Amino acid sequence: MYKEFETERVRIKPTSEGDSEFIYRLMNSPKFIQYIGDREINSVISAKDYIKTKMLPQLQRLGYSNYTIFQKTDNTKIGTCGLYDREGLEGIDIGFAFLPEYEGQGFAYEAANRLKKAAFEEFEIEEIKAITSKKNISSQRLLEKLGLKMVDVIILPNDDEELLLYKIQKNIL
């Protein structure tokens, strides 16, 4: 069984095939496409395939991956947060995305901060990285609030956009 987490307002569960409809909706939201990229998830079926081929193998291999974030008050799926072994980036990357109607309410910080704690204390990760677009000011602010520091500008393989690279080490909590 894979670990689940909670905070005062959210439950954090590993994303499963049952989240396909939600993942389809989230990955086709305008800000997701603008700042994270078009994953070409054009149907609920392709979202299910994406979960099976991109998210679940890492969960099975490392014990952590992408998590679906549920609002506790009504069990609504509001976003995702995860610890990713991302191709083209050495180390573990923390990332997050929320439906537009749940942005700016502190849910992303709450979920990401809990996963950061789990990364260091439960998954024994020594360093967390994050990447974000130079244009994504809200993501940059959230990463800084989480304690990550911008350390470099990088370009991932098969991409041409310069991304800001952030890092935090375990002993800097």
Descriptive notes:
With 173 residues, this protein is an alpha+beta fold. It has one domain: Gcn5-related N-acetyltransferase (GNAT) (Aminopeptidase, 3-Layer(aba) Sandwich). It has helices spanning 20-27, 30-36, 44-62, 107-121, 137-145, and strands spanning 5-6, 10-14, 66-71, 76-84, 92-98, 127-133, 149-154, 163-169. It has an eight-stranded mixed sheet, sandwiched between helices. It starts with a strand and ends with a strand. The mean pLDDT is 96.
Order of strands, main sheet, comes to 1-2-3-4-5-6-8-7
* Mean of pLDDT: 96
Name of the top-level CATH class: Alpha Beta
Major pleated sheet: 8 strands, mixed
CATH homologous superfamily placement: Gcn5-related N-acetyltransferase (GNAT)
Shape: globular
Total number of strands: 8
Q: How many domains? A: 1
Radius of gyration: 15 Å
Low-confidence sequence ranges? none
Please give the share of residues in helix.
Answer: 25-40%
Helix segment count? 5
Give the amount of beta strand, in percent: 25-35%
The structural class is alpha+beta
Helix-strand string: EEHHHEEEHEHEE
CATH topology: Aminopeptidase
Distance between the termini: 28 Å
The CATH architecture assignment turns out to be: 3-Layer(aba) Sandwich
